[in-house]
Amino acid sequence: MTEECLCKNEKVILFPCSGGSNCGLITHEVAVSLDVLGVGCLCSIAGVGAHVGGMMKSAMRAKKIVAIDGCPVACARKAVEHMGLKVTDWICVTKEGISKSHRLLLEQEEVELVTERVKERLASLN
């Protein structure tokens, strides 16, 4: 099996933490929404951590690397930086006013709120 990235928009790579909390799950849903909208390309933090060649190449070519973390522990940001990549934009779900819990049911309004905030933030940085 070939190790390649399937990114369509390699200008903006999105790395969600996808952690084991409501906020971590929100990061994944936000990245999926942004990918579907064409704002960026969802990339696997596990794939980069495993040094999958195509994913690393895509991330190295990106103009922006966006780490979307659920909380200030910043696992996604730290993982990307640990791989020697520069995070250009960092978004933290709890800093958007959402309380972290281990209730793993997503509130669609929270996903939409964070998606809009990330879109606004990326638009203002252009």
Can you tag this structure with a few keywords?
alpha/beta
Give me the Rg, rounded. 14 Å
Number of strands: 4
> Whole-Å distance between the termini?
37 Å
Number of domains: 1
Sheet with most strands: 4 strands, parallel
Uncertain parts: none
Shape: globular
Q: Averaging pLDDT over every residue, what do you get?
A: 88
Protein described:
The chain has about 130 residues and is α/β, with parallel strands linked by helices. It has one domain. Helices cover about 45% and strands about 15% of the residues. It has five helices and four strands. The protein has a four-stranded parallel sheet, sandwiched between helices. β3 (about 65-70), α4 (about 75-80) and β4 (about 90) form a beta-alpha-beta unit. The protein starts with 11 loop residues before the first strand and ends with a helix.
What's a concise summary of this model?
By secondary structure, the protein is of the alpha/beta class. It has helices at residues 22-36, 45-49, 53-61, 75-82, 108-124; strands at residues 12-16, 41-42, 64-69, 89-92.
Reconstruct the topology from this structure.
Elements: E1 12-16, H1 22-36, E2 41-42, H2 45-49, H3 53-61, E3 64-69, H4 75-82, E4 89-92, H5 108-124
Parallel strand pairs: 1-2, 1-3, 3-4
